[in-house]
Specification:
With 90 residues, the protein is an alpha+beta fold. Helix content is 40%, strand content 26%. It has a single domain, classed as GIY-YIG endonuclease.
């Protein structure tokens, strides 16, 4: 039995350049949900024109670690870090 993997990810709207940070255990499914124009679970990406593309990801062995990293990436320091590695505002 393989261990679960959790992802922290950053996606960017190809239409507006806006970014979104989240975490999930199934990255492909979650990206598909963000790009679904019908009912999906992200109120943020539903309001902003897509399509959304994956621009950054990190892997973690536990959901707790992934959630902690997501929270940090949404902080001022985390946004600056993403800006430095992605070259855009986050």
């Amino acid at each position: 039995m393989s261990a679960a993997v959790f992802y922290v990810y950053v996606i960017r709207s190809q239409a507006t350049g806006r970014t979104y940070v989240g975490h999930t255990s199934n990255l492909a499914k979650r990206l598909s949900e963000h790009n679904d124009t019908g009912n999906h679970s992200s109120r943020f990406t539903k309001r902003i024109a897509g399509p959304w593309s994956l621009v950054y990801e990190e892997r973690f062995p536990t959901r707790k670690e992934a959630f902690r990293r997501e929270r940090w990436l949404k902080s001022g320091q985390g946004r600056e870090y993403l800006k430095s590695i992605l070259g855009v505002g986050c």
